[in-house]
Amino acid sequence: MALSAEALEAAYRRLERPVYNYLFRWFWDAGVCEDLIHDAFERLWKKRERIDPDRIDALVWTSVINLARNHHARGKRWRWLPLPASLTGRNNPETETELDLRDRRLRRALDQLPDPSREVLLLELYAGMSRVEIAHTLGVAEGTLASRKHTAIARLRGLLEESES
Known about the structure:
By secondary structure, the chain is an all-alpha fold. The chain folds into two domains: about 1-100, no CATH class; about 100-165, Arc Repressor Mutant, subunit A, CATH 1.10.10. The chain contains nine helices and no strands. The protein starts with a helix and ends with a helix.
């Protein structure tokens, strides 16, 4: 019942791209995304003796989402400290110049969404997960998920329209 190296590697190959897409829309920083993916798979490898191979995808997503939440919360705490943005890794000019106008608008709009709304959109749009998979991963009912998605899309649409004018 333990997870084999081959099963974990297959999960990595299958999930790396959708996980990266999800994380990138949270943090807009390739290095952070790669670190969080690495940390998630490393944690699973350390627990491989207790992992059911049939549940690996759900465990990867749960681990990634929890790591992203923790990283995001740490970033919020940094904003309250009187440190220059350059020391916290925020507002990196190289990263900012790589993003085109549309991505910057999307980034600003997504950053204004509440975390639960953002998670739902990112998991569906950028990770390619189904509604059932998202509800299971986040531990919410499908009706709650649908409500969050509807509210998130309406809010995102409004924010994007505001930024155009």
